[in-house]
Records
---
Amino acid sequence: MNSKTLKSVLVIIILMIFSCDEPETIVTDIVHTDGSVTRRIEMRNKKKDFDSSKLRVPVDSTWSYKDTVVYEMKNGKRDTTWIRTAEKNFISVDEINKEYLTDKGCNKASKRFVSFSRKFKWFNNEYRFSENVGKGLKYGYPIENYLNREEMNFFYLPKSISEEKMAGADSTKFKLLNDTIEKKVERWFWSCNLAEWIEEFTKLTAGRAGDDISKENLKKNEREIVNMIITKEPGADTVIISRFLGESNYRKFRKEADSTSSTISKRVEELSSFKEYSLRVSMPGKVISTNGYIDKNGELLWPVKSDFFLSCQYEMWAVSKISNTWAWIVSGLFLLFVLAGLIFRVIKK
Amino acid sequence: MFFTLHLKLRLISTKPQNNLIDLEIIEECRKGNMHYFRKLVEITSPFVFSVALRMMGDEPQARDIAQESMITVWKAIYKIRSADSFKTWLYRIVVNKCYDQLRKRKRNPEVRADEKTWVFISDKIYEEPFTEMENRETVQIINLLTEKLSPKQKAVFVLSDLEEMSNEEISSITGMSRTNVKANLHYARKRIGEMIEKHL
Amino acid sequence: MEAEDKKYDKVVNLLKKSKPVFMDAGTFSDKIIRILQEDKSKVSLQELIIEYLFGWVYIGWIRRSMVACAMLLILFFGYQQALILRRINDLSDQKVNNGKVVMTSLTDEFSSKMMLYRISAGRLPGGKISISEKEIDKLVKSINRLQVKYQDIIYLIENDPELKKYIESRMNEGKKK
């Protein structure tokens, strides 16, 4: 990876952190038993600008929407927030997937899809709904390799909740936890980038590179290089490549190295340009299982951030059940019938 | 000698013997086999009739009771699992049906001594050689002797002294305790004995 | 006494020897069989229905199969319910009781309505007032409408200098009065 790419990635990360994140978006999916979904999107912006290219989820003219405005006094200054609420009813999740495919918004590069399934389990009908975002990097490592269970739980928390915890009763504990996670996430991020680079480079140089720059050998130096990137040793930019490939190999495969670096930076750029939003899901019946968070209204909540799908597909799923009354009745009648038969037999005896 | 032989044969044929009511017949009847039930009826109806006639003292009534008893046997034979218990159970059905009928009958407030019957009895007990009586005559004598007895006393007398059953068997059939059986039998014999003494 | 017993025994022996004769035993059997067969055909509707419904209990393999099916159904139900209960219990770890409601439309959430009320509290006279939720809802909706209209009007005025001048002059006249 060359220094130019490294710098651009760093800039992108910085931009990512400090970028203007309007319009803030909450997507609410109200799932119905027939597989139709009523999708409600709420967007907040400081100005009345809801251009489709800036939207984080696809919304077009087929949606019905209304605009409201909120005025707030903050430190003697009037703060204006525009809220656009758009709603559309989708007959099936396939329609939502079609909209994702033709998305022209700021998150169009990410591969998103929705799935719904219904299972008949005699006494209950189970409904499974999931929204998925495809992974950004093909060869990254799962975050589970870097974080323990407690760290994972904190990592996936919605921002509002994690901020509350860091300001709450055990703030010291959560702040420490947050710091630990940040360091580990940084290492994980660079490790994924490097793994991606190694895979793409070895693909490009397949059959031509010597054993010294085989995939296995390059991976052996992975940890060292990541440490270098993280610690940013003086002159790290110049020694990274030579340390990694060896001077002679670098000269020999410079073209391939540069090509790989631009591919990786493009992928990272796409990922970093992903604008975060929140997803809420309302399931039919009683929720029995989910990987999301349940707020006090009983709605399921997920943050959708690029971190979550850096190296693995991010699936936000929920399973709910509705009792089949008729199945209960039929089973009850059958059991009563068998019992009556047995009693009848005993009496007759 | 011929009469003695005939008498013995009759005893064999009318007194129910366990080896005449096979478990096989009972099992087949439980399965609903009408053919085997007919056999059962043929084997058991003579002594069922005998008990009923001695209890009721009226032939048509005795036949009716025998008929009802057989129908009850058919409907309830699934309860029986052994040939030994069958005999007691059958007697119980017959005796209970006789009880029901006897209770319905009104008791005669006055006892009218039938002199002709006493003369007949007197002649018969000393008759040589003995000739069997007809059903009508048997019934007349039993009615005369047991007129003052209650249905329970009559049942105990018939089962013990005429059908030659043990107190234990009578106890199972009637549902009375052995003490009650003895007591009722004693009283029945006493009453009958008094009548015999008075008139013979 | 002995003589009495002897007489008694003689009479009883007489009766013992003369067993009642059962005539027409064959006809009797036939009659019984005929009655039973007639009875069979006269089975009541109720019995027929019961026999039809519960006739299966007499057939061993059907009875056993039905009982096995019933047991399996009960087991399946128990297993399913236990699984669901376990999954629901596991959900308690994911419940966020103190989570904020992230974002809602102003006109929907009571708390947001209250925020607006708080904002305007300074302009309201002091003291207690009781307002129903319906009334607040109406108030907030009308305020929203007015605000939108106000923005539009301000925009028009800003973009039209002549109109702006006219309105300013009218406002100054009003102040002087």
Note: Confidence is low (pLDDT under 50) at residues 1-18 of chain B.
---
Amino acid sequence: MEELILLGHGSGGGLSHELIENVFAASFANPLLLPLEDASLFPSPGERLAFTTDSYVVQPLFFPGGDIGRLAICGTVNDLSMRGAAPLYLSASFIIEEGLPVADLKRVVFSMAEAAAEAGVQIVCGDTKVVERGAADRLFITTSGIGVVRDGVDVSAQNARAGDAVILSGTIGDHGITILSQREGMQFRSGLESDAAPLNGLVAAMLAESTGVRAMRDPTRGGLATTLNEIAGSSHAGIEIEEGKIPVSEGVEWACEMLGLDPLYLANEGKLVAIVPAEDADRIVKAMRSTRYGANAVLIGRVTDEHPGRVILRTRFGIKRIIDVLASDQFPRIC
Amino acid sequence: MCLAVPALITKIEGTAAEADLGGITLEVNLTFTPEVKVGDYVIMHAGYALSVMDRREAEETFELLAQLAESNESH
Amino acid sequence: MRVTESFRSPELVEKLKERIAAISRTPIRIMEFCGTHTHAVCRYGIREMVPRTVEMLSGPGCPVCVTDVRSLDYAMALSMVPGAIIATFGDLLKIPGSRGTLQHARARGARVEMVYSPLDALKLARRNPGNSIIFLGIGFETTAPTVAASIVQAEKEEIKNFYVYSMHKITPPAMRAILDAGEVALGGILCPGHVSTVTGWKAWQFLSDVYHIPSAVAGFEPVDVLLAVAELVEQHERGTARVVNAYPRSVTAEGNRAARETMARVFDVGPAPWRGLGTIPDSGLSINEEYAAFDAEKRFPVDPGETIEPKGCHCGEVIRGVMTPGACPLFRKSCTPMNPIGPCMVSSEGTCAAYYLYG
């Protein structure tokens, strides 16, 4: 096999087939994919299907705790899970910049296979394109996913109601700070890792405890603050959270102090926020804490009928602050 | 302005130092604080140490605050 | 990190709140001169913690907010120099000049890299010998020494492709300008804590000697700020006008002489334009003759283009403390973080952004 990705690998000819055989099919091997037909067929898995898509353009491709491949699988698995769907089948499309080392591609694809196996999903179709040097930033991945929603499960950002409890599955800011620490121009070694993880197991445990879960979202870009605002807006409800209850790891907290960032706005790739009926909250938190990715689950606040559409934070000092969405990304500052 | 954090110096090589900030490892330049020793806390801004934290002063400030607390109570 | 945690202790915060409430009788206006104080005051809700007699005002302490439009335009023009890589603190990336921000420049093809330290910019220079690395120097006495040191380092290593565009300023002249203008009657001044690690707290003695106004050097944790406020309120009630160091764990009387010497070695002090305050003599730092080889202005005399002030913007008055963000007709209407008109809303340490974010 070649060492570097060439334009020819995207041409559909012999080089393409070699790439598919040696890289993709080798790692994604499953009976639905392997005939390598134009489309994969499977019997309908249920009454209500969930369908989602996302693209991944993260730089650097590899970072502590994960890589673009793991993100691509977990991100789509999680989007399905956030609607209470059990994820089943994924597609994976790759746009590769000419010159990318094949070894890097193999590493990404292997990581995707691992994440898919952990999540119990299959990658059943895909595509590869190669573009000229400079036309893409090394590698872009798009994954779409299909899942099935059981009867009686109705999870939507519009469902939050006054009195509901707000639960967060664990520490915030880990992914955002990890990626930042890998940039050229930011000189710190964090010892932190991205939290990228498939959350369908966690969600299954929560739904097993209570089918009354109202809403779930994973706070990716824009962080917890943005996600809570989305839910508050969609539900026309107010949300109030306690600063002291929000778990932030020490390293993330100090990186934020140093760079002038607010962990509430940092990306997370393995966390969820859930709105649940108040009477189920303790049970659900307990169930979450017995899972791998929910060990630090905690009740952080309540939904209220005051200030509909607004998110309010009660600080450690008892002062209330409005938590708004940011216009765009936070940048580190010096002043 | 100015964001600066208290970092614990863990290693020194000339003016280059490594410091710990809650588990994060940073590079800190000691050009302005040549007297720093391993184990000191420095106030770090933009990659440079600007002062060595005086822990005795920190303790004294607490004492002062404790006194304030007492005088509050006597109001 | 136990020390810092203690300065955030809710119990101590309560005690200080009670103390201030117990001693404050006459109204006092306290002005801070540090963007990080603006941010801290809003983040911790200090205004809600102090009695109605204490009014906290923000002054020209945000180095980004006080940078004039023409300087920003010059930086934008530098970004279009062929082969240039602009190295900048994140603070500047979204600040609008007359024709967009550095982010717009990047979208138009300029190379703009965000850095945490001027040392990162030096690294960029070493790694990209075919490019000119131009570092945008903003900040007051806390940051200027670090930039000066990096220039000295560049000279030592014979790095030939590292330049600094200095927009650095120093704090005391701005304080004097505010006090001389007399637009707001101030009863106390919160002195910038980290600037003071460099200048020493004696640098604020002129506030007592010339202006008879009490001042307190303050740190940035909630206990630090409240302690300084308590000191000022106490002096105000007593009628004294001393400089008090309420941040003794980091600030000494003499400050950091090595830092000041490095600044003096590289920079000349001269007049500088301050948004909202006009040109203030002896307030700006420019690279001196000896280090001219590192001066971006000398090496790249670009045309900043026509200066267009943001229409209807009242940042100048906000910076001078004569208008609170709420009083600006654009605040929350046409000027929001989503669509900022002036730097006070763009910069996270700008007064308007702090008021908007922290309610």
Note: Chain B touches chain C at residues 1-4, 6, 22, 27, 29, 31-34, 41, 43, 45-48, 50-51, 53-55, 57-58, 60-62, 65, 68-69, 71-72, 75 (CB under 8 Å).
